[in-house]
Design goal:
Number of strands of chain B: 11
Order of helices and strands of chain B: EEEEEEEEEEE
Largest sheet of chain B: 6 strands, mixed
Distance between the termini of chain B: 41 Å
Order of helices and strands of chain A: EEEEEEEEEEE
Distance between the termini of chain A: 37 Å
Oligomer: heterodimer
Radius of gyration of chain B: 13 Å
Largest sheet of chain A: 7 strands, mixed
Strand content of chain A: over 45%
Strand content of chain B: over 45%
Number of helices of chain B: 0
C-alpha cells in the first residue's frame, strides 16, 4: 500500500495570500490527484497532477488559482493562490497504485480569514 | 454526469448492532471504493470492488457490488464505537481514470 504524507497538516491564512501544500508518497506512482472537501461537503476532484507536464484541471478549477507541480513520481505540490474565505477546505492528495487501489493523504485543513 | 447517492445520510446504532450503508449510481461503474473518514481528517481505504457480484470482507466489514455494477452496500456486523465516523463511497466512471466521484457520505454514530 502507498503511504502519503502532506504538509502542512493545517494552516490559518489571511485573505489575498497564497499557500503551497506538499504531498509526498513513499513509492513511485503514475496517477496522482488533488481533491478538495469543502465544509460539510463530499470530495471534489481539482486536478490530475501529471509528472513532467502541466496538470489536467477539472471543470471549475483553473491553473492560475490552483497551480500544481509534479517534478517526479513521488512528489507534488498544490498552491492555493490569492485566497478568499471560500477557499477554506480540506485539501487532499490521492494516488492510485498498480492494483487500482486509490489512497488518500491525511489532508491539509485550510482556514482563510 | 454521473452521480453517487448514499443512504442513509446519518445513522445512530447501539453498540453490537448490525448496519448497512448503500451507494447507488445511475450508470455502470468501473470500480467502487469505500472509505472511512474521521472528522476533519484524511480518508482511510476500506475496500475496492471491481467485478459484478463481488464481495469482500475485512474484520467485521463486508462490501458488495451488484451484478450490474450500479449498486454497492457496506455492512458492519456487531458495531463498535471504533466504527464511528463518516463512510464515503467513491467510484470511477466508465474507465480506470482514477478520477473518483463521491457520494455525500454517511455519518455513523455508535452508542456504547
Amino acid at each position: 500500500s502507498a503511504v502519503i504524507s502532506q504538509k502542512p497538516s493545517r494552516d490559518i491564512c489571511q485573505r489575498g495570500t497564497s499557500l503551497t501544500i506538499q504531498c509526498q508518497v513513499d513509492s513511485q506512482v503514475t496517477m496522482m490527484f488533488w481533491y478538495r472537501q469543502q465544509p460539510g461537503q463530499s470530495l471534489t476532484l481539482i486536478a490530475t497532477a501529471n509528472q513532467g507536464s502541466e496538470a489536467t484541471y477539472e471543470s471549475g478549477f483553473v491553473i492560475d488559482k490552483f497551480p500544481i507541480s509534479r517534478p517526479n513520481l513521488t512528489f507534488s505540490t498544490l498552491t492555493v493562490s490569492n485566497m478568499s474565505p471560500e477557499d477554506s477546505s480540506i485539501y487532499l492528495c490521492s494516488v492510485r497504485d498498480g492494483t487500482d487501489t486509490q489512497y488518500f493523504g491525511p489532508g491539509t485543513r485550510l482556514t482563510v480569514l | 454526469s454521473q452521480e453517487l447517492e448514499q443512504s442513509p445520510q446519518s445513522l445512530i446504532v447501539q453498540e453490537g448492532k448490525n448496519l448497512t450503508i448503500n451507494c447507488t449510481s445511475s450508470k455502470t461503474l468501473y470500480g467502487l471504493y469505500w472509505y472511512k473518514q474521521k472528522y476533519g481528517e484524511g480518508l482511510i481505504f476500506l475496500m475496492m470492488l471491481q467485478k459484478g457480484g463481488e464481495e469482500k470482507s475485512h474484520e467485521k466489514i463486508t462490501a458488495k457490488l451488484d451484478e450490474k455494477k450500479q449498486q454497492s452496500s457496506l455492512h458492519i456486523t456487531a458495531s463498535q464505537p471504533s466504527h464511528a465516523g463518516i463512510y464515503l463511497c467513491g467510484a470511477d466512471g466508465s474507465s480506470n481514470t482514477g478520477k473518483l466521484i463521491f457520494g455525500q457520505g454517511t455519518t455513523l454514530q455508535v452508542k456504547p
